[in-house]
Inverse folding.
């Protein structure tokens, strides 16, 4: 069986080495030494000024929205994982959907500006499939209208924009280290910011608002992560260059094997360096997509319709016209990509897809 993704696992000994220390210290969670070590190593690897490790990418988004004290309307993308939208609603704000660019699949800066009202407080954009947004254009709009910017950078480990890791942009950048992501800590996430005050606030929020054992700086939630998760993060970080390299090779193999497949591929944003984290293809029609999925499934291959449906159609949000997102969401399919996926597997997937196309 070939799934759309499969988590990377280090050798079990690399993980158990960390477990011995956990047993010796009997310190399992609450900002332990492995969590601290992981934060330091991630900051170093990512060249990030400030970073807080959290229990998942959704809580990271919610804490970012809360810490920036966002109110009213937040302009966001309908082409993302549902957590991007639900975090806004969960924090009592209203998502306003801009449309996306049909080549990069990211929020289209041109469609942001016309949606700004006196109630708009921020832009929450996703760097979809690890492809950076048009960050300069978004920041220009934000500066002009005094809006905050949050990036949901859940797909972006290893992605750069203008030579810097993409997590360095926006007022806050959040990410996920969930098992399905390119770099993972089983469950996990992080917030990154260049603002020391904001960092302090988010650190309080991550730990119930505790300022000392007997006083609270602000309202908080439980956003902490455990030593066991940090241990997986530390073990996996040692393999990150290998993980990134194999993704890049797999994309090259897909490109070659699928050269004759009549689909649209992702266009990397100008100024961006992609991390090759997903392999999305956009079929000519939804019918062709469904037929391709059926044939792949017949062969125990399970790609995923990332992202479908377009989030402006979610039941608990106000509807907006986002024709490009609706159209791409219906026709896009992410093909399997993970560290241990073999060249033969990719060739097999390609043969099936080409057979479906040629029978049309
Ligand atoms: C995975 C993902 C999230 C959620 O992260 P979790 O760690 O699973 O909570 C949010 N946004 C996007 C774009 C994602 O892909």
């Amino acid at each position: 069986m070939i799934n759309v993704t499969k988590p990377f696992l280090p050798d079990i000994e690399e993980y158990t080495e960390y477990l011995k220390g956990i047993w010796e210290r009997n310190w399992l969670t609450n900002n332990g030494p492995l969590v601290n070590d992981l934060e330091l190593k991630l900051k170093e690897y990512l060249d990030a000024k400030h970073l807080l490790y959290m229990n998942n990418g959704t809580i990271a988004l919610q804490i970012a929205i809360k810490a920036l004290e966002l109110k009213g309307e937040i302009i966001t993308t309908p082409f993302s994982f549902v957590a991007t939208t639900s975090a806004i609603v969960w924090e009592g704000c209203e998502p306003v959907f801009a449309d996306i660019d049909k080549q990069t699949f990211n929020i289209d800066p041109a469609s942001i500006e016309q949606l700004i009202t006196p109630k708009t407080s921020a832009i929450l954009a996703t760097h979809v499939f690890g492809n950076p947004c048009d960050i300069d254009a978004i920041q220009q709009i934000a500066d002009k209208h005094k809006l905050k910017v949050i990036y949901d950078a859940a797909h972006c480990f290893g992605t750069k924009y203008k030579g810097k890791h993409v997590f360095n942009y926006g007022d806050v950048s959040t990410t996920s280290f969930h098992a399905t992501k390119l770099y993972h800590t089983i469950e996990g996430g992080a917030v990154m910011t260049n603002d020391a005050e904001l960092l302090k606030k988010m650190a309080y929020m991550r730990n119930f608002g505790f300022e000392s054992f007997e006083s609270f700086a602000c309202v908080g939630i439980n956003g902490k992560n455990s030593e066991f998760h940090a241990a997986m993060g530390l073990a996996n970080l040692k393999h990150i260059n290998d993980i990134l390299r194999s993704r890049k090779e797999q994309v090259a193999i897909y490109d070659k094997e699928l050269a004759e497949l009549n689909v649209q591929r992702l266009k990397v944003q100008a100024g961006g360096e992609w991390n090759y984290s997903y392999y999305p293809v956009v079929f000519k029609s939804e019918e062709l997509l469904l037929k391709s999925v059926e044939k792949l499934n017949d062969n125990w291959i399970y790609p995923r319709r990332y992202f479908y449906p377009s989030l402006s159609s979610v039941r608990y949000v106000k509807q907006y016209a986002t024709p490009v997102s609706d159209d791409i969401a219906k026709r896009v399919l992410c093909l399997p990509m993970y560290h241990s996926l073999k060249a033969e597997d990719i060739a097999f997937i390609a043969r099936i897809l080409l057979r479906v196309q040629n029978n049309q």
Summary: Residues 56-58, 80-81, 83-84, 126, 152, 154-155, 176, 178, 189 surround pyridoxal-5'-phosphate (CB under 6 Å).
